[in-house]
Specification:
single chain; mainly alpha; 2 domains; two-stranded antiparallel ribbon; 17 helices; oxidoreductase
């Protein structure tokens, strides 16, 4: 039985031709993509041409600038050198305009143009803020928050007077986080206790920001009794919530959670899943965010004694001879 040599080379020739066609198509797509990226970069360069910035690499952007020093120090140099705003090239075809002038921000935020949510998109489904914004707003009225000033002051006095007597440097973020945790637990959840006083020193070190965790993270779950909300017994939680609501209303009180629970009484029910999302919102905004803001304020006052003295004089002028604020 004889086999023609030509019949063996035909399949090889067809495969080789197919590979050549695929290679040409791949090369054409690659060139087309490169042209698109080039045109997109030229469009970005034209869009930010009126804003000065440090020299950037055509591919790596400003990555090398941030490798030389800390991110915050590099940004501070840019703020001092370039007025109002500065383009920050993340990559060859990706740039963000860093705006730090208040007049610029007023114009940008005041416009109705669609704005990129950035990393907020990762948090939005978790905190469920937008959906229940109108329900929560009345709970933060000034008249409702005024009585809690005394509780906030008590949370500060629990342990901070001891720090003052030490007359030494204090890592404030850890202790401020515990203080804000105490405050939000007392004001929003009627939890009586002090995580500042009850927390051992070894746990404090494990939960500090320097240790890689968030200060007060373990105490949040312990205080709320919600270590992973799905495992919570929903029937007992719902029963206890309604009992607490009726008891508070009978006593003439109106805690922050009533605005949500009253909506439930009117027939517009809020599922337990959404209610847990509101608990997350309270804890996130009332604990972590507030702790960061207070820590930065204390740091700024400590590094600028003249402004600290002005704030002290203003507080004294408001308090007068009294020891606390009266409305």
């Amino acid at each position: 039985m004889s086999v023609s040599l030509l019949s063996l080379t035909r399949p090889l020739g067809s495969v080789s031709g197919l590979l050549q066609v695929v290679s040409l198509l791949g090369l054409a797509l690659l060139l087309l993509k490169a042209a698109q990226l080039y045109l997109h970069r030229q469009w970005l360069l034209k869009a930010v041409q009126h804003f000065l910035s440090p020299p950037s690499h055509w591919l790596f952007g400003h990555i090398q600038e941030f490798q030389k020093e800390e991110d915050l120090q590099c940004l501070r140099k840019w703020v001092d050198k370039f007025p109002c705003a500065c383009p920050h090239w993340l990559w060859g075809t990706e740039v963000e305009l860093v705006v730090y002038d208040p007049d610029y921000m007023k114009v940008i935020l005041g416009r109705s143009d669609p704005k990129s949510h950035g990393f907020y998109r990762l948090l939005a489904p978790w905190i469920s803020w937008l959906k229940h914004r109108r329900i929560l707003t009345p709970a933060f009225h000034y008249d409702i928050l005024k009585p809690y000033v005394g509780l906030m002051a008590d949370s500060v006095h629990d342990k901070w007077e001891d720090f003052i007597r030490q007359n030494s440097y204090v890592e404030i973020f850890e202790h401020v986080s515990l203080m804000t945790l105490d405050t939000i637990m007392k004001c929003a959840f009627s939890y009586q206790g002090s995580h500042q006083a009850d927390r051992p020193s070894d746990q404090a070190e494990e939960g500090s920001a320097a240790g890689g965790g968030r200060a007060g993270e373990g105490q949040e779950q312990e205080a709320l009794g919600l270590p992973g909300h799905p495992l919570l017994c929903q029937s007992e939680c719902e029963q206890g919530r309604h009992e607490a609501l009726h008891t508070s209303l009978e006593e003439g009180g109106k805690p922050c959670c009533v605005s949500m629970s009253s909506q439930m009484e009117d027939g517009s029910s809020m599922p337990d899943k959404d209610l847990c999302a509101e608990v997350d919102t309270f804890m996130f905004e009332g604990h972590d965010t507030t702790a960061s803001g207070i820590s930065w304020i204390l740091y700024a006052l400590a590094t600028h004694p003249e402004h600290q003295q002005q704030c002290h004089e203003e507080v004294q002028s408001l308090l007068g001879d009294g020891a606390s604020i009266t409305w």
